Amino acid sequence: MNPRLSFSALALLAACAQAPQRPTAPPRAVDLSAVAPQPRPNGLATDWHQGAFMEIFVRAYQDSDGDGVGDLRGLISRLDYLKELGVTGLWLMPVTASADHDHGYATTDFRAIERDYGTLEDFDELLRQAHARGIGVIIDYVVNHSSHEHPLFQAARADPQSPQRDWFVWSEEAPQGWDIWGKNPWYWAAAKPWAWQGELKDLPKPPPDAKGHYFGTFGPHMPDFNLKRAEVFNWHLSNLRFWLNRGLDGFRLDAVPHLVENNAKDWNDQPESRRLTKRLFDAISAYPGRYTVCEATAEPQAYSRPEVCGSAFAFGLERAILQAVQGKTEAVGEIGRFFQTRPHRMATMLANHDIFAGARIWDQLQGDEARYKLAAASYLLQPGIPFIYYGEEIGLAGVTQLPGDGPIRGPMSWDGSANAGFTRATAPFRPTAPNAATQNAAAQRADPNSLFHHYRGLLALRQQQRALRSGSYEGVQVEGSVLSYLRRSGGETLLVALNYSAQPQSLNRPERDARAVRVWPEAAPSLPAGVLPAWGAQVWLLDSGE
């Protein structure tokens, strides 16, 4: 049997109910072949993923060919910058072929590179060049759904008798009582709901006799796979191996609590979703030195356990940090308590590509660099695997006039030239940041007191002090606006103290005696010993183990 099966890209069904039409358009090939695992070391340091990651939206990072869109070759040209900053891992938002030609989560081919970004050969070269610099690469993988334009869904939609019909979730009648984020996730296929231009809540209801409804957690343009079917799930495992066999270093698994929905009440974080996530995690972990992180807004602590995904984003911590640096004293204790009860392999962040996680940090803090630097220190010194959102390290502002997630997905600012050095095209795919003239990589690298050098110094400290990368978290103490704690690894003990106040504050820790050696910041403070500067952080080495 030929493993590459062909399915038709069919003419869309009429907007009224009618008998399904047979394929007439030329077929499009979908690679359904089983991919055998070929585990081999990636050549990186065993703890490469415990350094720090940079989350990169390739479309917005660097354009190499002048079309106004970032691409893989552009990213390759910026690897030395990332190495200089000190990151040891890259998380790329979806780079697979997509229908949206933007964020990339509406996948049309799980084994191909988005054409705007380049080719598989470009991707292979990115892996080679990143590995040569000691940097690992993980990519977003969307298990839950495809684009409505995916050939498999086109075949399933066109013919109820198609063998691909059961690859997606269907109901002849329109299920009632569902409400996922204010919408019914069941869509009448014949009405072409993906073409609706208004709010989904205003989507016209189908007639009572309408037949053929499909399920889409994230909207009509992204139909959910039927992951209860072994053939479908095993195909996803083969897709993961396709990339791992090329040398990829791991995955960020998207929206895993939504893999299985059982009914209108039991649709979020079902036991089946956790079991499937564990199988994905195990398949990736069969390759030496690989790393998996899950997006699980529901119960991220549970998904961080090795029984599920091994690591998941620490949603909630970023909110507490931003509240604390804006003067909300009660949030200081929340920061201190967070990792007392949560796995240390959780992935931490200040912001990411989703607006629900917050606007650009520059905008949230109105450009206040002292508070900005304290926010960075807050998560880079705590346990967890930090993920820096591209541009965060230079104070990239959002393009606030754009709708939806657009404001936080603008082009990276590289210098003060036209289009901020992002592209030589007349105009980039999206406007550049309003503060690009001052908050750009070239200007930041030239200023030793900049955000860039603050991030670079903290990442270097993490690399120098194993206790910060993988040590214990103990002795947590909160006194008003001051948070302090110990990080230990082997014989090495560090004392970390942070002042979330506009006034200098005394640190009451007997461990910080005359033998303590300050290792951060490098510049000597102007205040007496034991006094923390306003919006400041300090780290002391108490015992080097020598």
TrEMBL record:
InterPro entries from the UniProt entry = GH, GH13_cat_dom, Glyco_hydro_b, O16G_dom_2
Alphabetically list the UniProt keywords. Answer: Signal
Single GO MF descriptor: alpha-amylase activity
Signal peptide, first to last residue: 1-19
Name under which the protein is recorded: DUF3459 domain-containing protein
The answer to whether the entry has keyword Signal is yes
Keyword Signal (UniProt): yes
Question: Where's the Glycosyl hydrolase family 13 catalytic domain?
Answer: 55-430
Q: Which organism is it from?
A: Inhella proteolytica
Gene3D superfamilies from the xrefs?
Answer: Glycosidases, Golgi alpha-mannosidase II, Oligo-1,6-glucosidase, Domain 2
Which biological process annotations from GO are given for this protein? oligosaccharide catabolic process
What protein family is recorded?
A: Belongs to the glycosyl hydrolase 13 family.
